[in-house]
Design a protein that fits this description.
The complex is a heterotrimer. By secondary structure, chain A is mainly α. Chain A has helices at residues 2-6, 13-32, 34-59, 61-64, 81-90, 112-125, 134-137, 144-154, 156-159, 182-191, 206-220, 237-260, and strands spanning 166-167, 173-174. Chain A has twelve helices and two strands; from the N terminus they run H-H-H-H-H-H-H-H-H-E-E-H-H-H. Classes of the chains: A mainly alpha, B mainly alpha, C alpha+beta.
Chain lengths: 269, 553, 354
């Protein structure tokens, strides 16, 4: 205490007091502010919808119709929910570059704020699944093994054992799940983008989705170990067979050529 | 054995018990063995046996050595593997399967892979060696085919080799099914479905093989005894017979100076081939061990345990069954229902075509020898170009095989080359028939072109790349004449004349009856050895005429 | 085979068939294509230069030494690395340290033995090519005659040809005795009977969601969603779970009733909720690659494609008939239930299927 009082008259004392006072005010504001948050959110929400509507008119309405009612070039967006927008636009699938068998993943055009605004607008057209929260998609605390079983029952038939992707009819395909964010995986299960069937909470509860995300993170994440060595694409016997032919038999034939080759003769002088 | 043998050539001619001096220990052991096994007579014939040097003669060794590697590693795996389908909960060290129900077979394979030190390595060596074994047999068989090494007296050995290839496929398939993982279980399910399609007895065969309905609780144990005992036992016998015949016939050789149908030129078994072939075993084992260290194979932990209601896309068998998989995939779904019975043509036809295609290459040697009527022994190999029809047939066969292999992986080609699955299937359906025809024609033309080039070389010499200007201004390329070794090598091959039936009416006007089979034979002979199928090789006269004249180019 | 009109004149000229194998050099004047004989042996560097030979010797010894060191490395790795240790090795990735170390050391140890032996053989052992005579495999006529005579004598002494009764009964006995072996195989499995025709489904069995193990309500199944179900009462721990689920697995989707083209399919559905067998009718893979916009379902094994909005008829691939549909309804409590077993066998076709 003595020390403190001794410094009372220090030239910087006033500045310190001022800073403390400001911090206190800010802290107090922070404590009381949530009381008004709902209202502020609502305003923000309607603002977002307005902004989203503008973005929609420019980027989406040519195919999905001016009011999201759909056209011959694109399905209706009424009732698809914010999750569908966040997935389609957030993975770059929308806006579509050209009509084809299916919309491929590509460079994302909008930033996350714009995507949220678009999502807010589309969600306002009709009730649908919301964008999941961080907690909903986090693999923490999930049952990885159960997720594996669920994955093999519900997902592996199209996306392969560890989510490397696979072929569907007429040029369509189930994409690889490598590097796809948990949020987008969750949204895809929730909404069933394009030809993928949906797995709504009524048949696949939130907990199961989390398990699946956790399983994918374990078997096809950045830190996934492949104890045996090169994964060879995780595609199974076809890539193994090619490897055995090219590098296995190829190396052995190269060795055989060496074994059978004539040794260099001494130059005749 | 080699050490005892190596001392024997220096052994005195007199029997050991007569000699005053005590013979060295090695020799005494050899004497002991000779008195009981007759090893000196055996060694006399074989110790300095000559083997010609060519890399393609070592393809068979790749197969032999990978077979030995498979047996060695397989024995190790049996020490840990439990061939049982009892369901257990997994509590090993691999987290993403904790608490999952699985068969003991799968559980013990997980144990080998994650908890036995070196178990994963041995498993991977076993599986990689199996893939390489089959690939080696395929290439070895093609080498024998394209060089005509299957001709008399080696037809029986050709069949032994063919049987080994077929048995290898089934040994591989049963082994692949043992871990009872989701991928191999799907393969077994396919097999069961295929068995069901067999008319009349299909359901009985299926019930007996699986001990009831699929999957039941028996097939792993049953496949196990087939995989580790029955099939490898037969194969081991065939391998020994195959090798004895190779020794007995002595190896074939390519034409060249000093090499004839009556001799074999090369280096002796002891010491050169002992070192080269013995060393090659270690080289093969070393390469496969390194591959097993670098690349993962059949990661069953990623596939998960088998459940008949689960599946993954990209469900393929190992490569050697890919051909059958292709046939099954591209076949249209024909099914006939008559009188309360179902004929499942969509599965039966591929099931029948599969052995037929394999047998087609196996019987070719017999067809060829019937057409040529050649009963002489052949020890000089053909260059593929000098047998255009045979080479064309072989390439056509490989084309059909490869097209079906593509068909077996149609879903992966679709995703990796951004193609439509259905389009690939249609491509395979058409190309299975068209591809071999195109391959045959193209190959035959290439062979004839190469024959022509050889003839040019013999008659006009080798293009030297030196351009010379003649006094009157014309530029010519100087051709260097070939030396006598090359001349001999390029003209050593034999050429058959096409078979002719002769007049069907004799001089008295009596109709001579020609059997249909003889007509067919004449037709085949013409297509194999007629004008369009070979370029007459240069004659001595042609050569002399050209070289004796102005013959600078 | 049919050697009667074997056209000897069509066989290539007899030049090679005469004995006396290697042609002697010097013939070239008369026949330019004659075999000049084995080329003279050319010496390798190692044959004439002892220094080079020493170098080879050292190389071989070095290779054998590396092999020894690698084996020591193998044993050391076995002891040093825990079985679950992971290591990152570029460009392979995160792999098991033990597997990599053991495999590489074993590979090097083996490869160096082989490389040493081959280098030794190639550079130091004699490389003089030797010709070995071949002898015809066919026996000389005298030998053949002797064998035939011996055989005839033996056959005669046995009296097999004369005593038909012995011959016939012996053949009969030998032909029959393997039957015992065939009969012994009988208990490998039960007879098929009608096992393939029935599944666990029966009237009143609830459709239980595979994900949650809870019975399904129609409202749970949304248009465009995909759900898999098993019959009520079948649990994963049951001893015959695998065999039962192999037939009973169900695939449930909901299609707008207007979009269902097949009348019977609509009748057997509940408000557009349809239940089809998950087992492919081709060879029994669990089919379930459902494209919700086209209502097509693809089999991942052999690409049979079925149209779920049109009675699951086959539209592509090797399957021979449509997927069996399970007739469903709702019980008093509002849960989806089966209204009976499948009316036809599920899975692959078979002879008795009809």
């Amino acid at each position: 205490m003595k020390k403190l009082s001794a410094r009372r008259r220090h030239p910087l004392a006033a500045v310190v007091v001022l800073l403390l006072a400001l911090a206190a005010t800010g802290g107090l504001y922070a404590v009381f502010a949530p009381a008004d948050k709902a209202q502020a959110d609502e305003t923000a929400q309607s603002l977002a919808i307005d902004e989203g509507k503008k973005l929609y008119a420019v980027g989406c309405s040519s195919c999905h119709g001016t009011g999201g009612q759909g056209s011959s070039d694109g399905p209706s967006l009424v009732g698809v929910g914010a999750a569908a927008v966040d997935f389609q636009v957030g993975t770059g699938r929308m806006p579509l570059q050209q009509q084809g068998a299916q919309a491929p993943k590509k460079k994302v055009i909008y930033n996350q704020a714009q995507i949220d605004q678009l999502a807010a607008y589309v969600a306002s057209l009709g009730a649908g699944p919301n964008v999941p929260t961080k907690k909903q998609v986090s693999p923490e605390g999930a049952d990885i093994a159960k997720g594996g079983e669920l994955f093999r029952t519900n997902c592996a038939q199209c996306h392969n054992f560890t989510g490397e992707g696979g072929a569907l009819t007429h040029g369509k395909f189930a994409p690889s799940l490598e590097g796809v964010s948990p949020k987008h995986i969750y949204e895809a299960m929730q909404t069933g983008p394009q030809n993928m069937p949906s797995f709504p909470d009524t048949t696949m509860p939130e907990k199961s989705k989390k398990d699946i995300i956790a399983y994918l993170d374990a078997v096809n994440g950045e830190k996934t170990e492949s104890p045996g060595g090169l994964k060879l694409g995780g595609l199974g016997p076809v890539s193994e067979g090619l490897f055995a032919w090219i590098f296995g038999l190829g190396a052995l034939i190269a060795v055989a050529v060496w074994v059978a080759a004539r040794t260099a003769k001494a130059k005749k002088s | 054995m080699s050490t005892e043998n190596s001392t024997s050539p220096q052994a005195p001619a007199a029997p050991a018990n007569d000699s005053r001096k005590k013979a060295p220990a090695g020799e005494r052991v050899a004497d002991w063995a000779d008195g009981r096994l007759g090893i000196y007579s055996l060694a006399k014939a074989n110790m300095r046996k000559i083997f010609p040097d060519h890399w393609s003669f070592m393809l068979g060794e790749i197969c032999l050595y990978s077979f030995i590697i498979i047996i060695l590693t397989g024995v190790y795996l049996t020490l840990f593997f439990h061939p049982s389908m009892n369901e257990v909960e997994y509590h090993g060290s691999y987290v993403p399967l904790q608490g999952q129900l699985m068969s003991e077979a799968f559980n013990s394979t997980m144990h080998i892979s994650f908890d036995v030190r070196g178990g994963l390595l041995i498993r991977q060596i076993h599986h990689w060696a199996a893939l390489i074994f089959l690939a080696g047999m395929f290439v070895h068989m093609m080498r024998v085919f394209f060089t005509g090494a299957f001709r008399k007296p080696r037809e029986v050995n050709w069949l032994f080799g063919f049987l080994l290839f077929v048995l290898g496929m089934f040994t591989g398939f049963t082994g692949y099914s043992l871990p009872d993982d989701l991928l191999s279980g799907t393969g077994v399910r396919f097999m069961q479905g295929a068995i069901l399609s067999v008319p009349i007895v299909g359901t009985y065969l299926s019930m007996f093989l699986f001990g009831g309905e699929f999957p039941g609780g028996d097939f792993v144990a049953r496949f196990y005894s087939v995989h580790i005992l029955l099939l490898p036992g037969i194969m081991l016998g065939l391998v020994v017979a195959h090798l004895i015949l190779v020794f007995y016939h002595k190896h074939t050789q390519f034409a060249g100076p000093g090499k004839s149908n009556k001799n074999v030129v090369g280096m002796p078994l002891l010491p050169v081939y002992m070192a080269k072939a013995g060393g090659f075993f270690f080289l093969v084992f070393g390469v496969i061990a390194a591959i097993a260290a670098i690349a993962s194979i059949n990661p069953i932990w990623a596939l998960g345990p088998y459940r008949p209601d689960q599946v993954s896309t990209g469900a393929q068998p190992d490569w050697y069954m890919g051909f059958a998989e292709g046939l099954i995939r591209v076949m249209p779904g024909w099914e006939i229902n008559i009188w309360g019975h179902t004929l499942v043509l969509g599965v039966m036809i591929p099931l029948a075509v599969f052995p037929l295609v394999l047998v087609a290459i196996a019987v070719y040697p017999f067809i060829e020898s019937w057409v040529t009527g050649d009963k002489r022994e052949h020890h000089i190999l053909d260059r593929p170009r000098n047998a255009p029809t045979r080479t064309g047939f072989g390439v056509a066969w490989i084309t059909a095989y490869m097209v079906m292999l593509v068909g077996g992986g149609n879903d992966l080609w679709a995703t990796h080359f951004h193609l439509s699955l259905n389009a690939i299937t249609w491509f395979v359906r058409i190309f299975f028939f068209v591809g071999p025809v195109i391959a045959f024609i193209v190959t035959k033309r290439i062979c004839l072109g190469l024959q022509r080039r050889d003839k040019e070389k013999v008659l006009h010499g080798r293009e030297s790349g030196i351009i010379k200007r003649l006094p009157h201004g014309e530029f010519i390329e100087v051709h260097e004449p070939l030396d006598s070794e090359q001349l001999h090598t390029l003209t050593a091959h034999e050429q058959y004349k096409p078979l002719e039936i002769g007049p069907t009416v004799d001089e008295n006007g009596v109709q001579r009856k020609v059997k249909g089979s003889q007509k067919l034979r004449a037709k085949l002979s013409k297509s194999m050895y007629g004008e369009d199928s070979q370029i007459p090789k240069p004659t001595t006269e042609e050569y002399k005429e050209i070289t004796s004249g102005h013959g600078h180019h | 085979m049919s050697g009667q009109d074997n056209p000897e004149e069509n066989l290539p000229s007899a030049q090679e068939t005469e004995h006396g194998s290697v042609a002697v050099a010097g013939h070239a004047d008369t026949d330019p294509f004659a075999d000049p004989g084995l080329p003279p042996h050319a010496h390798r560097v190692q044959d004439i230069d002892e220094k080079a030979a020493r170098r080879s010797e050292r190389t071989v010894a070095l290779l054998f030494t590396i092999s020894m060191l690698a084996t020591v490395g193998f044993i050391a790795s076995f002891v040093a690395f825990p079985v679950d240790k992971s290591v990152f090795i570029w460009p392979i990735g995160h792999i098991s340290a033990l597997n990599f170390a053991l495999g590489m050391t074993l590979g090097v140890a083996l490869f160096c033995i082989g490389a040493g032996a081959v280098h030794w053989a190639r550079t130091l052992m004699s490389d003089v090519e030797v010709a070995d005579e071949r002898h015809p495999i066919e026996a000389e006529p005298e030998v053949k005659a002797k064998v035939m005579a011996d055989f005839a004598a033996g056959a005669k002494e046995s009296q097999l040809g004369r005593r038909k009764l012995i011959r016939n009964t012996m053949f009969g006995a030998l032909a029959m005795v393997p039957l015992s072996g065939v009969v012994l195989l009988r208990d490998l499995g039960p007879l098929p009977e009608d096992k393939l025709r029935h599944t666990l489904w029966s009237k009143g069995k609830l459709l239980v969601n595979m994900n949650t193990n809870e019975p399904l309500r129609p409202s749970d199944v949304q248009v465009g969603s995909l759900t898999f179900a098993k019959p009520e009462g079948l649990e994963e721990h049951d001893h015959d779970f695998q065999t039962q689920i192999a037939k009973a697995a169900l695939m449930i989707v909901r299609i707008q009733p207007d979009n269902i083209k097949d009348k019977r399919e609509l009748e057997w559905s509940h408000e557009g909720v349809v239940a089809y067998s998950k087992i492919c009718t081709h060879v029994g893979c669990p089919i379930s690659l459902y494209e919700q916009q086209t209502h097509h379902v693809l089999c991942p094994c052999h690409q049979s494609t079925f149209d779920l909005s049109d009675g699951a008829r086959v539209i592509f691939g090797p399957a021979g008939h449509a997927l069996p549909q399970l007739r469903i309804g709702v019980n008093e409590e509002g849960y989806l239930q089966a209204l009976g077993d499948f009316e036809e066998p599920v899975g692959p076709a078979f002879w008795e299927r009809g």
